[in-house]
Amino acid sequence: LIRPKFEIAYKALEKLDKDVGEYSQPTGGYFITFKSQKPIASKIVELCKEAGVLLTPAGATHPYGKDPKNNTLRIAPTFISEKELEIAMDVFITAAQIAHNQG
């Protein structure tokens, strides 16, 4: 039931160059961890929000919500439908590329 959603997210994340960021494939959790190479996590969240895609806040994976490197995001692919996820992941990839190029 949830595996196809993770596969959609992985397929989209594979499109990103490694110089933009990398992701982990969870072995039992419901979140994918994305780490950007630059301190742009909050910018990615902002760009996604402007496009109508909500993410967990930048820093959510750290104590007190403060990510000292501003590079870690948590993606929850199970929350929305597969079609919505495909669109949301396209937005995420575009936002990550824009933020990387600006940062």
Please characterize this protein's 3D structure.
The protein has 103 residues and is α+β, with helices and mostly antiparallel strands. It has a single domain, classed as Alpha-Beta Complex (Aspartate Aminotransferase, domain 1), CATH 3.90.1150. Helices cover 41% and strands 12% of the residues. The protein contains three helices and three strands. It has a three-stranded antiparallel sheet, with no helix packed on it. A hairpin with an 8-residue loop joins strand 1 and strand 2. The longest helix has 21 residues. The radius of gyration is 13 Å and the shape is globular. The relative contact order is 0.25. The mean pLDDT is 95.
Question: Any descriptors?
Answer:
single chain; 103 residues; alpha+beta; Aspartate Aminotransferase, domain 1; 3-stranded antiparallel β-sheet; 3 helices; 3 strands
